[in-house]
């Protein structure tokens, strides 16, 4: 069963997605409820699996990881065993920030973060191209990130 979010839950999620280190006192002031009900709501959102954790958001610019490429990957075999091998191996390439299986003309879309084009070429040549069952790749280099969210937008309802 999916938890129904009311306006207070949405405000809590909005505040915490912006600043997860916010105190309960500040959160309750922003939401418009006293501290106890806010604490209970946060706990309920955690127990419902809507809040799955808290983390620091790192600056990719300050870490020298501002080069972003998207890579289409076509596999030579898409049976379950081959997909599992690829899925397991791709998790061991730290430069791959995201990996999504795609329905379309290729099998996977990777988001790769490196410090430069030279570093990307190294990762592509030594790591991505040698992943299990990779038949072909196509790279798209990001010129500018217009929208890049760390949290998904909240749907109107979670039905």
UniProtKB/TrEMBL annotation:
This is Transcriptional regulator, AsnC family. Residues 5-66 form the HTH asnC-type domain. The lineage of its organism: Bacteria, Pseudomonadati, Pseudomonadota, Alphaproteobacteria, Rhodobacterales. It holds the Pfam family AsnC_trans_reg. It comes from Celeribacter halophilus. GO terms for biological process: regulation of DNA-templated transcription; response to amino acid. GO terms for molecular function: sequence-specific DNA binding. Keywords: Activator, DNA-binding, Transcription, Transcription regulation. InterPro entries: ArsR-like_HTH (IPR011991), AsnC-type_HTH_dom (IPR000485), Dimeric_a/b-barrel (IPR011008), Tscrpt_reg_AsnC-like (IPR019888), Tscrpt_reg_AsnC/Lrp_C (IPR019887), Tscrpt_reg_HTH_AsnC-type_CS (IPR019885), WH-like_DNA-bd_sf (IPR036388), WH_DNA-bd_sf (IPR036390).
């Amino acid at each position: 069963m999916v938890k129904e979010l009311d306006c207070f839950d949405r405000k809590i999620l909005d505040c915490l997605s912006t600043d997860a280190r916010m105190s309960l006192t500040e959160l309750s002031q922003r939401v418009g409820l006293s501290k106890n009900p806010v604490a209970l709501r946060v706990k309920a959102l955690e127990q419902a699996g809507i809040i799955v954790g808290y983390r620091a958001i790192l600056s990719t610019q300050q870490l020298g990881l501002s080069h972003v490429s998207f890579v289409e990957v076509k596999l030579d075999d898409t049976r379950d065993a081959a997909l599992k091998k690829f899925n397991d191996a791709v998790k061991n390439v730290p430069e791959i920030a995201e990996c999504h299986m795609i329905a379309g003309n290729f099998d996977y879309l990777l988001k790769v973060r490196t410090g430069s084009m030279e570093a990307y070429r190294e990762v592509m040549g030594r790591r991505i191209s040698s992943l299990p069952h990779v038949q072909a790749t196509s790279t798209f280099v990001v010129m500018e990130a217009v929208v890049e969210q760390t949290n998904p937008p909240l749907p109107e309802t979670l039905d």
